[in-house]
Each structure stands twice: as C-alpha cells, then as structure tokens.
C-alpha cells in the first residue's frame, strides 16, 4: 500500500509538471487557436539560458525571473517576426513554421550548450515541507509554483480586460478589430506569455530529469495530452489533466506496462481523448447558430 | 513545344535514366536510390495531405512498419526480398485504413498533433522488449542486399547490388507514380480533393466521406510503406533509431518543398531531404539542423507552394 | 461640419475593383442609407470606411483624414461598425460581448453606467447576460450587436443589413430602436439595407448603388414619393 501511495504522489508531482506545460499550450491556444509544436524546445532553450546565468554566478531567483522576462520578450518577438507573415496562411504552412522553429531551437540548444547532460539546481529544500515521507521539497515546491501559475492564467483570462480581448481576438479577429483590439499584438502577447510559462515549466522539470537538448520531447507530448484531457481552452482542465496523467503514467508504468511504453501510452491517450471527448473533460463545445 | 521534340526529350531522358547508375560510383547510386525511395514516401504523404487535406506528422510510422515487415519476412521466414515489397504495401494499407477511422474525427492541428504523437512514440514502440524476438530490439535487423540476377559492365562499372537495386526501385517508382497520376486525375482524385475543399458539399453530391477518407489514408500509408520496405533492402540494416520523429517531419518537409498536391514535386522534395542536411552540415558543422530549420522557414514564407509552385509561376509569366 | 466626407473612393477585393469613384457625405445627427441590389457593393462601402479593404481616394471624418488608417484606429476615432452577420463573439457571454464594445474607452465608471443603460433598453439581453452569445436568437443577436457598437459611444454607427434573416416584427422593433438611438443619443448612422422601404422610412438621405457606382442620391422623402424611381430601382 505504501509503495502504491508513493507511486501516486510521484505521479502527482510529475503531473504538476505536465500541467505546467499544458498551461503554456492552453495559453497559446487561447490567444491564437494554434498549437505550438515548438513549445517544448523553446522551454528547453529558456532553461539553458537560466542554467548559463546560474553557472555565471547569478543567484537562483534572479536568474529565474530574468529568464522569465527574456522568454516573454523572445516569445513576443518570435510571433512578430516568424508567425505574423503566415497569419493568414493555411494551417499546414503554420505547422511547417512551428516545426521549423522546433528544429532550430533544438539545434541551437545543442550547438550553444552541447549535448552533455547538465544538472540544474532546485531552489527548494531537500526535505518536503509537507508529508515529507511522500513528497520531496522540490515536488512540493514545483506543485506550488504550478498552482500559482495556474491561478494567474485563469484570473488573467477571466477577469482582466486584456485577457478578454485576447480571447476575443482568437475567436473572431475581424470582429475584434471592429472593437478596436489590436489583434496582431494580442497574438504576440499570447506567445510571450506562453514562452514565459514554458520557461517556468522547464526550470521546474530540469532538476528532476537533468538538462539536455532533448529534455522536453516526451514531456511535451504529455503536456499536450494534459491540455487536451482538460479541454484545450481550459487552464484548470490542463492542471487536472496533468495530474490525472501523471498518476496514470506512474500507476500503469509500475503495475501494468512497465516504463518502456510511456510515449506510446501518451499517444494512445491523446488519440482516445480526441476521438471520444474532443473538448476534454471540462471543455465547452461552442454553439453557433447557422 | 512540338510533339516530335517532346518525343525526343522523352527518349533521351529514358536513355539517361537507364545509363545513370553506370556513370556514378556505388555510393552515389546508393544516394540516388534513397532519393527515389523518399520520392515514393513523399508521394504517399502528398496523397493524404496535399490532395486529401489531412495533415500527417506521423508518416514515419508507416515507413517503419513497411521496413520492418520486409525485414522480418526476410530474416525470420526467409522470404524473397521482392515478394516482401507488395506484402509490406498491403500491411501498411490495412494499417492506414484502420488509422483513417479515428482520423475522421480529427482535423487540422488536432490531426497533426495525434500523428505527431505517433511519430514520437514509434521508436519507443519498436524497442519494446516483448516483441524483441521479432524486431531485434535496439540492435535491429541486419539484411543482405539482393544479388543482381545477371552480370553487366558499362562504362567500366559492373552491375553491383546498388545498381541493380536502382533499376528495381526505378521500375517500382515509375509504376507507382503512373498509378497515382491516373488515380488522382480521374474521378477518385476529384472526390478526394472535393472532400478537402468542401466536405459538406461533397457529401451532398454523393461522395461517401468515410470510404474516401479512410481509403485515402490507406493508399497513402501503402505508398509510404512500400518506400519503407525498399529502404530496408537498400540500406540492408534497420533499427528503431532509424525511424525517429524527425523522419516524419522530413517527409512533410519533402511534401511542402515539392508542392502540395503535386506528383512530380515529390522528386524535388526527395532531393531536398536527402541532400540538404548534408549541405547544411557543410555550412555549419555544429548546427546542421538549424540551417535545415531555417530553410523550412524560408520555404514557408517564400514558396508556400513548393518548387512546383515556383515553376508554375515562372511558366505563367513566360506565357504572358 | 460634415461628419463623414468621402471623395473618389475606389475599392478592390484583391485584383477585382468593386467600387468606382464614390462620392458621398454624411451630416452630423443624420441617418443616411445606401440601397442597392445584391452585389452592388453596399457592404464593401461600409468595409471601405473601416479600411477593411484596399481603397484609394480620401475619407475625412470630422475634418480628420481616416483613409490609410488601420481598422483598430478608425474605431478609436468614433466609428462603430455592426457588420453583416452581426459579428458577435459567439463563444463569449453576452456581457463579455458588451464589455468588449467599450474596449478602447478609459472611463470605467461611465462604461458601467452605459452597460446598465443597454440592459435597460434591451431587457432580453439583461436576462441572458451570462449566456453564450451564440445561443441567442437572431433578433437578440442583432440587439447585442447594436448594443456592443453603442458601448463605444460612437459618433457614427455603421449598420450592415440589420434586417437580414429576421422576422418582420423583430425588424420593426429594431428599426424603432435605431430611430430612438439616433434621436436620444445623437448617434449619426450610415445604414446599408436591401429592404428599401424600411430604410427610406428611417433615413433622411439615401444613395443608390449599382455595380459599385452611385446612380441616385437625394432626400429619402423625395425618393419615396417618386413612383417611377421606386418601381425602376427599388422594385416597389
């Protein structure tokens, strides 16, 4: 029973990480109605930047915040420079651009930071502040951080005029312009915020899985699954989805399939969700009168 | 261009194609073989994505299944190499049709996402210990290239295994291209494209969406599966890591480079994905993929209709 | 001072020219209507004012040039557009739609007051303020679209076929409300309509558009009275 609980709690902790990645994806989808395939690589690159700062002697939390800022600006610029030209192009062209970005970020990470595995520090105490027999300090810390990010994202979209404007711009850019919303900038902001969230996710994951250019590939998939499971437009859903996935992954991995098929499991989950509940567990289908 | 000049060009090209392998070293012939194989795979993907409008970022999986089908049949059952090719095609056809069903419910990003998940999961699935007995696990399967059935020497080069394979692959490629051309320029092609552009209208006109869409998936998978099987013969070695997610991405790149909905474009796409990573390597030893990615972006902005799109534009300008 | 002065307006959809050398003007406080058959270019004219299509020619709003500005900036000058098809944010709630109408305004308290006034004028919207806008009936969506535009406190309201797809009783109601808005809130209007008789009853001035050119213009009373014009051009 004890080992089962340990699997569950480890799953909760992992789930927090998937949730954070899922949040970044939800953020971009809310703002642009696109799914950013390059999200994982961008997050990895941000984490490398943080690593470089820490190596250079910058204190952890300063590097943390600085990385968030740099990532935000970078995300914004990437939308302005690379995505604006294809805003009106068909989906496939956008997918090509995302894939191109994915490849470039991955390559640059490898080029600048090399492929040796690096360790990334955790700012949290080793012993868990809460239920230490089940949770390490880092796990509690990262879950907390994820929840803070979640709350911020949710409140932003629900309660702020800017959040409302971003959602409007994504749903109906024509009408959004007619009320004075600068649609292009809304998209850029969405990207900036998603990059910021992705950076946070990366910095929370790196201490656990160690930092290398391919760190995020599998996690990205789980992040997608989490976002889908919760409903691609729902930040709360991404978190719940992430937690469910984290726990499922660990339980299935320990007792059913073994840890070799984690990615396959993610695949099957994604396809199943998309087929049977395309709006996720909590998403709302959108009604429009014909 | 008169009919006679067209005929002359046709005959000259045919002769060139037949003599080509003897004018190149073995290694170059090997590369040409890969180009032809990729062209078939890219054509397969184009049928689904270019004509059918269904985005697939997971065609590497069909390529892998085709390759492994062939390899397993040869190494475990001692089957003739040539026989495994159509069998691989059929296996992938079935797999493609089966995948076509869930794909009915998905579109755009979601389909791209689901197929991308397939691409990422494929190497892991191939390494799965439970089926190691068949797949050879992480080490993969080693094969022998089929031996040429007769001897021939031209321009000082003998009919090596690679050169013989060239003719086999060329014959298969030409038949598959011809088949695709006939299929897609006729009723079937129009039905597929109608579904891509206006599914509701197509259905109203009596096109059975389910059958056409799943059949398109199946056909597309079959083509790519055949390419995979041929690659097993050409490379004579397959392993799970021969089919990473990047392969699926490369195939899609090939489709875009060649031009969506273009059959002849597949050759340009294949040339791109075979040789550009090498060129990128020359430009920057440390980050060839970055250059590759940059080229992808350049394509998306400057040539969204691929090489064939550019050629069409040039031809139009000349007419005016 | 003229509210809107349009000179030598040409407009294109891609390579196709749709409007040819339009000249018209609107006066403060008036209601002007543009009539014409399907495809005459009426919707394009409204889009041209909002700079949502490529145009040449000059447009001046309250003595300031607006041609060449982006749509988002024209809104800020005081022009609100109720597009054809209503343009509601169907996935958002009624209240969110209304709040978005006031997006460019900085006077929070006044915005709240305006919101209450909209609810007072359209009680049905108040009932449904938390519903997804897409679930509203056609007439309710039209009311929502107009209210959203009014939340801007515009000087000029552009309306594209407000009667489209609505039952006659609802249309009557909406046109009556439009008259009230014009008189009570002093909002000038440029109305594009296929239903000529409705439009002529509401507007004080009319332009008739045929394949992108203005073929007739004058006070709506005169046009209404002239039987031959009505029969030939307006079909009644």
Question: Which regions of chain B contain 5 or more consecutive residues with pLDDT less than 50?
Answer: none
What is the count of β-strands of chain C?
Answer: 10
User: What string gives the helices and strands of chain C in order?
Assistant: EEEHEEHEHHHHEHEHEEHH
Strand percentage of chain B: under 5%
Q: What is the number of helical segments of chain B per DSSP (H or I, 4+ residues)?
A: 14
Query: Approximately how much helix is present in the residues of chain B?
Result: over 70%
Biggest contact: A-B, 43 and 44 residues
| Biggest sheet strand line-up of chain B | 1-4
CATH level-two architecture of chain C: 3-Layer(aba) Sandwich
Oligomerization state:
heterotrimer
Q: What best-fitting shape of chain C do the alpha-carbon axes yield?
A: globular
Shape of chain B: globular
Mean pLDDT of chain B: 85
Instruction: Look at the helices and sheets of chain C and give the structural class.
Output: alpha/beta
Percent of sequence in beta strands of chain C: 25-35%
Gyration radius of chain B (Cα, Å) is 20 Å
For the sheet with most strands of chain B, the description reads: 2 strands, antiparallel
Distance between the termini of chain C: 35 Å
Number of helices of chain C: 10
Task: Please give a structural write-up.
The complex is a heterotrimer of chains A (290), B (320) and C (236). By secondary structure, chain A is mostly helical. Chain A has a domain at 2-119 and 137-216. Chain A has 11 helices and no strands. Chain A has helices at residues 2-32, 39-55, 60-83, 91-113, 137-159, 161-171, 173-178, 183-209, 217-230, 235-256, 262-276. In chain A, helix 1 (2-32) packs parallel to helix 5. Chain A is globular. Chain B is mainly alpha-helical and 320 residues long. Chain B has a domain at 24-244. Chain B has 14 helices and 4 strands. In chain B, the strands form 2 sheets. In chain B, strands 1-4 form a two-stranded antiparallel sheet. A two-stranded antiparallel sheet of chain B has the order 2-3. Chain B starts with a helix and ends with a helix. The mean pLDDT of chain B is 85. With 236 residues, chain C is an alpha/beta fold. Helices cover 39% and strands 28% of the residues of chain C. Chain C has 10 helices and 10 strands. In chain C, strands 6-7-8-3-9-10 form a 6-stranded mixed sheet, sandwiched between helices. In chain C, strands 2-1-4-5 form a 4-stranded antiparallel sheet, with helices on one face. In chain C, a hairpin with a 2-residue loop joins strand 1 and strand 2 (16-27). Chain C is globular and about 45 Å long. The interface between A and C is medium-sized, with 22 and 31 residues.
């Amino acid at each position: 029973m004890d080992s089962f609980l340990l699997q569950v709690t480890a799953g909760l902790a992992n789930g927090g990480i998937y949730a954070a990645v899922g949040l970044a994806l939800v953020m971009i989808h809310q703002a642009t109605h696109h799914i950013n395939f390059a999200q994982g690589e961008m997050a990895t690159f941000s984490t490398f930047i943080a690593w470089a700062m820490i190596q250079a002697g910058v204190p952890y939390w300063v590097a943390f915040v600085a990385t968030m800022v740099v990532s935000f600006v970078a995300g914004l610029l990437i939308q302005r420079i690379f995505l604006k030209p294809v805003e009106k192009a068909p989906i496939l062209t956008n997918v090509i651009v995302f894939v191109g970005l994915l490849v470039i970020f991955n390559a640059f990470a490898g080029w600048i930071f090399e492929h040796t595995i690096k360790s990334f520090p955790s700012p949290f105490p080793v012993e868990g502040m809460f239920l230490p027999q089940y949770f390490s300090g880092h796990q509690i810390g990262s879950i907390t951080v994820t929840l803070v990010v979640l709350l911020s994202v949710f409140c932003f979209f629900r309660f702020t005029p800017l959040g409302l404007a971003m959602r409007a711009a994504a749903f109906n850019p024509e009408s959004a312009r007619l009320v004075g919303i600068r649609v292009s900038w809304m998209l850029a902001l969405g990207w900036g915020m998603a990059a910021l969230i992705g950076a946070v996710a990366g910095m929370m994951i790196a201490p656990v899985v160690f930092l290398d250019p391919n760190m995020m590939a599998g996690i990205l998939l789980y992040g997608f699954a989490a976002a889908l499971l919760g409903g691609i437009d729902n930040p709360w859903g991404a978190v719940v989805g992430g937690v469910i996935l984290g726990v499922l992954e660990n339980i299935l991995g320990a007792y059913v399939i073994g840890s070799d098929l984690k990615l396959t499991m993610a695949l099957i989950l994604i396809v199943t969700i998309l087929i049977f509940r395309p709006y996720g567990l909590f998403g709302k289908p959108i009604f429009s009168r014909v | 261009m008169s009919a006679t000049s067209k005929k002359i060009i046709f005959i000259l090209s045919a002769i060139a194609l037949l003599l080509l392998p003897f004018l190149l070293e073995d290694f170059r012939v090997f590369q040409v073989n890969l180009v032809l194989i990729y062209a078939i795979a890219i054509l397969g993907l184009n049928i689904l994505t270019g004509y059918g409008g269904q985005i697939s970022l997971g065609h590497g999986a069909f390529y892998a299944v085709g390759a492994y089908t062939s390899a397993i049949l040869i190494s475990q059952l001692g089957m003739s190499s040539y026989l495994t090719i159509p069998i691989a095609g059929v296996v992938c056809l079935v797999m493609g049709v089966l995948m076509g069903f869930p794909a009915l419910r998905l579109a755009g990003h979601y389909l791209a996402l689901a197929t991308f998940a397939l691409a990422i999961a494929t190497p892991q699935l191939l390494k799965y210990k439970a089926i190691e007995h068949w797949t050879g696990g992480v080490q993969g399967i080693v094969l022998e290239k089929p031996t040429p059935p007769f001897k021939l020497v031209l321009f000082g080069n003998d009919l090596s295994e690679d050169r013989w394979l060239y003719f086999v692959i060329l014959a298969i490629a030409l038949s598959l291209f011809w088949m695709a051309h006939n299929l897609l320029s006729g009723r079937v092609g129009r039905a597929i494209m109608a579904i891509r552009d206006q599914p509701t209208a197509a259905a109203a006109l009596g096109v059975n969406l389910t059958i056409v869409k799943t059949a398109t998936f199946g056909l597309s998978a079959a083509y790519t599966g055949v390419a995979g099987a041929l690659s097993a013969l050409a490379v004579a070695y397959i392993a799970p890591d021969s089919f990473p997610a990047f392969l699926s991405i490369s195939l899609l790149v090939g489709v875009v480079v060649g031009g969506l909905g273009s059959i002849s474009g597949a050759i340009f796409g294949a040339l791109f994905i075979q040789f550009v990573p090498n060129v990128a390597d020359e430009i920057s030893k440390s980050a060839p993929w970055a250059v590759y990615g940059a080229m992808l972006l350049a394509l998306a902005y400057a040539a969204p209709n691929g090489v064939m799109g550019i050629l069409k534009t040039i031809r139009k300008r000349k007419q005016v | 001072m003229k509210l809107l002065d349009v000179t030598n307006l040409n407009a294109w959809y891609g390579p196709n020219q749709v409007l040819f050398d339009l000249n018209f003007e609107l006066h403060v406080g008036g209601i002007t209507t543009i009539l014409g058959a399907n495809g005459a270019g009426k919707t394009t004219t409204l889009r041209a004012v909002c700079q949502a299509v490529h145009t040449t020619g000059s447009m001046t709003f309250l003595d300031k040039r607006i041609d060449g500005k982006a749509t988002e900036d024209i809104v800020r000058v005081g022009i609100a557009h109720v597009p054809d098809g209503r343009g509601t944010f169907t996935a958002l709630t009624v209240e969110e739609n209304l709040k978005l109408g006031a997006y460019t305004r900085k006077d929070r308290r006044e915005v709240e007051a305006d919101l209450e006034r909209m609810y007072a004028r359209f009680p049905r919207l108040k009932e449904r303020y938390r519903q997804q806008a897409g679930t509203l009936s056609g007439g309710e969506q039209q009311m929502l679209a107009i209210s959203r535009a009014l939340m801007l406190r515009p000087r000029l309201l552009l309306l594209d076929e407000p009667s489209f797809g609505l039952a006659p009783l609802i249309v009557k109601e909406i046109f009556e409300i439009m008259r009230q808005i014009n008189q009570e809130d002093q909002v000038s209007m440029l109305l594009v309509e296929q239903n000529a008789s409705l439009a002529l009853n509401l507007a004080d001035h009319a332009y008739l558009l045929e394949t992108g050119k203005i073929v007739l213009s004058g006070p709506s009373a005169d046009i209404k009275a002239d039987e031959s014009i009505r029969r030939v051009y307006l079909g009644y």
